[in-house]
Design brief:
alpha/beta, 11 strands, three-stranded mixed beta sheet, binds iron/sulfur cluster, eight-stranded mixed beta sheet, 267 residues
């Protein structure tokens, strides 16, 4: 159980500059999924709580769930700096309460999660005018147990996508971050192809030195044979491995009839 605090927040929707979205909703600060590579760490870092990422979470308390005026059919993203369906949500039901409050609005809701818990709220999702649920995953269950220890295992996420798709909800999979030699994007394409409207693909970003150290440590402990590859890519800037994979992904997705809405460029 993480170290929990309750904090006051003024509004559940905040404007964002994230491409494709107008607003975000982050009901929590911190994330019990505790992914080793998490990009949200800098937003949830709390120097006064020296415990490791994933071991503390703040739960926001909102005065109301009113939607700002003139939002119309603008887009609202759950979530940019946490996972709205992290384990605490099971008992807290805060994300559920927000979705329930806005289910009759014209907002275009987009949820991205690593948790099968989102299926619990299918009754609400089915009542919404515009909603899509995405799952991020890039590796097998065993690798995920080390790199994404608190999240639902990828096979559970795939089962959840199937359930959502069969219930008529729009779905997608974000294959990210792709960890060289550890992730298996082609396997994810095969497993998810029947249940997704589209897929997206992105590389691992290790510009944050703390994340780089954490990932390198894990690679050294689990797959020391991959360390030279990681040094080539993330220290020498050699992206040949990602370039080659990009072509394989595009070919494989085409063969499986999967629409790619985004794939990393040849950087
Ligand atoms: S699920 Fe997302 S927000 Fe949560 S720890 Fe993992 S990467 Fe970070």
């Amino acid at each position: 159980m993480p170290d929990i605090r309750r904090i006051e927040a003024r509004h559940f929707m905040t404007p964002t500059r994230i491409a494709g979205y107008d607003f975000t909703c982050n009901p929590y600060v911190g994330c019990g999924h505790g992914c080793i590579y998490c990009y949200a760490k800098p937003f949830g870092d709390q120097p006064e709580r020296p415990a490791s990422w994933g071991s503390y979470v703040d739960i926001k308390r909102y005065p109301h769930f009113d939607i700002p005026k003139n939002t119309g059919s603008k887009s609202l993203f759950f979530s940019s700096a946490t996972d709205s369906y992290q384990p605490l949500e099971g008992d807290e039901r805060l994300t559920r309460a927000i979705l329930d409050a806005i289910k009759e609005s014209a907002l275009r809701i987009s949820i991205l999660t690593k948790s099968a818990l989102v299926v619990r709220d299918l009754d609400i999702l089915k009542q919404m005018q515009s909603v899509e649920v995405g799952f991020s995953m890039s590796m097998c269950d065993e690798a995920a147990s080390f790199f994404e220890p608190g999240a639902s295992r990828p096979t559970e996420r795939i089962a959840a996508i199937k359930t959502l798709k069969e219930a008529g909800i729009a779905t997608h999979v974000f294959v990210a971050p792709i960890l060289p030699g550890i992730s298996d994007p082609l396997m994810i394409i095969d497993a998810c192809a029947p249940y997704v409207d589209y897929m997206m693909f992105d590389t691992l970003n290790l510009k944050n030195p703390e994340n780089k150290l954490a990932v390198f440590r894990h690679v050294l402990a689990r797959r020391p044979d991959l360390l030279p590859l990681y040094k080539d890519i993330f220290e020498k800037g050699d992206k040949t491995w990602y370039h080659d994979l990009r072509s394989q992904i595009i070919d494989h997705a085409r063969q499986r009839g999967v629409t790619i809405r985004y794939i990393y460029d040849r950087r």
